[in-house]
C-alpha cells in the first residue's frame, strides 16, 4: 500500500467514526478515560521498554540533552500521563451546552449549541505524553483524532497508542476514532494537510520550522503558535519587590518554554533602583543580560541588545532589557516586537493596569503575575492541545471548549419567509 | 507605484489604525454609523450616477440579467443600505464584553474578554451594498477593514467608499481604518492573501471559483462557504400541509440564494399522499423536478435524478427529490451529499426532531421552518459579512460577535509559578 493511501484511509476511517463520537454520552467518555488511565499505569513496563528504543536511537543520533530529557518515559511521567486523563474526566463536558437562546419576532426559537468539531489532526514533536494528553482531550470533547508524532518518539508513541487502542476494545468508543500515523517523514504530513474533505482542524505543536511548514501547506484550518516572545513591564508604579520576584520567576523557573519572559521593560523612573538588584539575582542564576543603551549606563558590564534581540525567543537563560519613557512606549514595544502570547505589567496603579490590559494585543495579559501561568493546566482546563497566538477560533490555551464549534438549532411552527 | 506596493501600503496603513479602532467607545462608533447612513442617503444622486457607469459596462459585456439586477443602485436600495447601518447601531457592541470570569486556587482572577480581531479583508463580487454593510459591521465591532470588490461594481464601490471616507473626516474613526483596493485584477487579491503579517482574517463572498482561489492561496485564516446544498426532510410524522408550505417557500421564494432548498427528502410512508400535491404546486411555479426511482413511480412524468444531482447547488428553479426509508437514511444523505449549511425536518415527533437536530452536521438545523431563515438579518444580527459553513471560528451567519476574538486578562497579587 502506498503512503498516500495509508494517510487517506486513516483519515476516511476516522471521519466515518466522528459522527458516532459526537453522540457519545459524557458518562461513557469518562469511563473510557478512566480505563485508559488505569491501563497506562498497568502497562508502564511495556511503555518504558518501547521508550528505550527511542532513547537508544536518540543517543546514536547525538540528540541534545534537552531533547533526550523530553523523550524519557519513567514511572513518574507515566503516572503523570494517567493523572492528566483523570483530570480531563473532571472537566465539564462542553458538548451539548446551550450557549445562547433567542426568540425572533416571528416566533422562531434559535439555540446556539456547542458541538464537537469533527476530526482533528495533531502534528507534534518529541514529548510522548502529548499523545495521551491529546487523545484524552479529543475523546472528552467528542472529536475523532489523527495523531502524527515526531520520528524521535516513534516507538513510545506507538506503544501509548497500542495501550489506548486495547483499552477501547469492548467500549462504545469506536477504535477508528483515534488514529496514529506511524510514518516518519514529512511527506505523510503533507498528505494529511491536503485532506480538507475529511479533517476539520490541524494543530501543529513543535519548532517554528514545523509550524511554518504546516501553515504554508495546509488546505485545512490551522490553529498554531509560532513563538512566545513574552514581556514583563516594570512600571514606575510597581511594587519593586514584587516586580523582582515576578521577573525572576518568569525568566528563570523554566526558561525553555513558550511562556517564559524574553524581554524585560523597565520605566526610566525606577530603573536605577530596580535594575542593579534584579541583575544581581538573574546573573547569579546564570542569566545573560543584553541591554539597551540606557540599561547599559546602569548595568555597565552587560552586552548590548541589538534590534534583532527584541524579536528573539531565546528559550534559554538570556534576557533582553529595555528602559522605556512611559507605559505607552512599553505597550508599543510589546505590540511591535512581541508574539501576542503572554505579557505582564507590574503596577499598583489601576488606571495604568487597565490601559495595559486594553491595549496589549496578546492572548493573555497579566497584571502583577508571572507570564508562566499561560498553560491549560494552570487555567483549570485539565490539559491543552496547544496554545494559540492566532486570533481566529481560539486564543491562548486550547482545551475542551476550544475543541468544539457550535451549531444553531431552530425550532419553528411552520414559519416561512416573506 | 507598483500594484504590490499599493496593496502592501494599504494593509500597513489599515493595520496601524486597527489599534485605535479597538479602543473606540460604542457611542463614537454609533454616531459615525449614523453619519454615514445620513450621508449615503444625501448623496444618492452621486451614487446612482457612478452606478450607471458599472451598468453601462455590464451591458457592453453582455452580463446576465440576474447579475445586472444585483448591480443596480436605486433610491430604494440606497435607503436599504442606510437602514442596514442604522440596524447595526442598534445591535449590542460585543467589544469588551466579559464572556467568563474564573478564580484559580492560587488567587489569580482570569477574565475572558471579547476584543476586535484587528484587520479583516473582505473579498466579494457584484452587489455594491456589501461595501457599506461590511464597513458598518467592521466599524461597530472595532475592526479595521480592507475591501476588495469585483470589477463589475468598481465605480459603485468607489463611490460608496468615497462617501464613507468623507463622512469619517472630523470624527474619531481613523480614515486609514477603512480601505478599498480599487485594482480590478486577481493579482491584487493574491497579494492581499499573502499579507498574514498584517491581515488577521479573510472573508471571501462570491462564486465557488473565487472562494476556492482564496482558500488555496491564502496564508491568512479564511472563513467561507462554498455552497448551500440545503435539504428539507418530510418525515412520516410530518403535518403534510405544513410540510407543503415550508418546502414551497424554501424552493420557490428566492431560488438563487444559498439557503434555498435544493433537495427534498420524503419518508416512504407519506410519499404517495404528499408528493402529487407538492409536485403540482412546484411545477405550477415553474420548478423542474428530478426524482429517484421511487419518486418516479409516483410522479411518472419527471426526470430522473442522477448521482450528481444530489451534490448539485442549482441556485435555480430545479429540485431533486428522494424517497427514504427512515430518518437515519435522511440524516446520512444530508451529511454525505449536503454542504453543512441549512437543513430542515418537518415532524410532529419530538424524539425524531431531537435525533435530526443532534445528528445533522450543519451550521443551522431546523425543525418545522423554512431553511430560508439562515441570514444575519433574520437572526437579529443586523446584517452579515457572510455565512460560514466552516466549523472553525464561526459557523452560520457572521456578524458582530463573529468579527471578534477574545483575550484573557489576568489579575494577580504577585503570583509566581512553582
**What is the beta-strand fraction of chain A?**
15-25%
SS element count, helices of chain A: 14
State the low-pLDDT regions of chain A, or none: none
Mean pLDDT rating of chain A: 95
Order of helices and strands of chain A: HHHHHEEEHEHEHEHEHEHEHEEHEHEEEE
Which fold does the CATH topology of the largest domain in chain A refer to?
Answer: Aldehyde Dehydrogenase, Chain A, domain 1
Shape of chain A: globular
Total strand segments of chain A? 16
CATH H level of the largest domain in chain A: which superfamily? Aldehyde Dehydrogenase, Chain A, domain 1
Assigned CATH class of the largest domain in chain A: Alpha Beta
What can you see in these coordinates?
The model of chain A has no long low-confidence stretch (mean pLDDT 95). In chain A, helix 2 packs antiparallel against helix 5 and helix 10 packs across helix 11. Chain A folds into 2 domains: 243 residues, Aldehyde Dehydrogenase, Chain A, domain 1; 144 residues, Aldehyde Dehydrogenase, Chain A, domain 2 (3-Layer(aba) Sandwich), CATH 3.40.309.10. In chain A, the strands form 4 sheets. In chain A, strands 10-9-11-8-7-12-13 form a 7-stranded parallel sheet. In chain A, strands 5-4-3-6 form a 4-stranded parallel sheet, sandwiched between helices. By secondary structure, chain A is an alpha/beta fold. Helices cover 43% and strands 21% of the residues of chain A. The interface between A and B is large, with 65 and 65 residues. Strand 13 of chain A pairs parallel with strand 16 of chain B, so a sheet runs across the interface.
Amino acid at each position: 500500500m502506498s503512503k498516500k493511501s495509508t494517510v487517506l484511509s486513516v483519515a476516511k476511517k476516522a471521519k466515518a467514526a466522528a459522527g458516532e463520537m459526537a453522540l457519545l454520552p459524557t458518562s461513557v467518555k469518562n469511563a473510557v478515560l478512566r480505563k485508559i488511565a488505569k491501563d497506562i499505569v498497568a502497562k508502564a513496563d511495556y511503555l518504558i521498554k518501547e521508550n528505550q528504543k527511542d532513547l537508544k536511537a536518540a543517543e546514536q543520533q547525538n540528540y541534545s540533552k534537552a531533547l533526550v530529557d523530553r523523550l524519557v518515559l519513567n514511572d513518574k511521567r507515566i503516572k503523570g500521563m494517567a493523572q492528566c486523563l483523570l483530570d480531563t474526566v473532571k472537566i465539564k463536558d462542553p458538548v451539548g451546552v446551550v450557549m445562547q437562546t433567542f426568540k425572533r419576532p416571528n416566533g422562531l426559537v434559535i439555540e446556539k449549541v456547542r458541538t464537537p468539531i469533527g476530526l482533528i489532526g495533531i502534528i507534534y514533536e518529541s514529548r510522548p505524553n502529548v499523545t495521551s494528553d491529546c487523545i484524552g482531550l479529543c475523546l472528552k470533547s467528542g472529536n475523532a483524532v489523527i495523531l502524527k508524532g515526531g520520528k524521535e518518539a516513534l516507538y513510545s508513541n506507538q506503544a501509548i497508542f497500542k495501550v489506548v487502542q486495547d483499552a477501547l476494545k469492548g467500549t462504545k468508543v469506536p477504535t477508528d476514532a483515534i488514529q496514529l500515523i506511524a510514518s516518519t517523514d514529512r511527506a505523510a504530513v503533507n498528505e494529511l494537510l491536503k485532506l480538507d474533505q475529511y479533517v476539520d482542524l490541524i494543530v501543529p505543536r513543535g519548532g517554528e520550522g514545523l509550524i511554518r511548514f504546516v501553515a504554508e501547506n495546509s488546505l485545512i484550518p490551522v490553529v498554531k503558535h509560532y513563538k512566545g516572545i513574552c514581556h514583563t513591564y516594570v512600571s514606575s508604579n510597581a511594587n519593586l519587590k514584587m516586580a523582582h520576584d515576578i521577573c525572576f520567576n518568569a525568566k528563570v523557573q523554566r526558561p525553555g518554554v513558550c511562556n517564559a519572559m524574553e524581554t524585560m521593560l523597565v520605566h526610566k523612573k525606577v530603573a536605577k533602583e530596580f535594575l542593579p538588584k534584579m541583575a544581581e539575582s538573574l546573573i547569579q542564576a546564570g542569566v545573560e543580560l543584553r541591554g539597551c543603551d540606557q540599561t547599559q549606563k546602569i548595568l555597565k558590564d552587560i552586552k548590548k541588545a541589538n534590534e534583532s534581540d527584541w524579536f528573539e525567543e531565546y528559550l534559554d537563560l538570556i534576557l533582553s532589557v529595555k528602559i522605556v519613557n512611559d507605559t505607552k512606549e512599553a505597550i508599543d514595544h510589546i505590540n511591535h516586537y512581541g508574539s501576542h502570547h503572554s505579557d505582564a505589567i507590574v503596577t499598583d496603579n489601576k488606571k495604568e493596569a487597565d490601559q495595559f490590559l486594553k491595549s496589549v494585543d496578546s492572548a493573555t495579559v497579566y497584571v502583577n503575575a508571572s507570564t508562566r501561568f499561560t498553560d491549560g493546566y494552570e487555567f483549570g482546563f485539565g490539559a491543552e492541545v496547544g496554545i494559540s497566538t492566532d486570533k481566529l477560533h481560539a486564543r491562548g490555551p486550547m482545551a475542551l471548549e476550544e475543541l468544539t464549534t457550535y451549531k444553531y438549532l431552530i425550532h419553528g411552527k411552520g414559519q416561512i419567509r416573506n
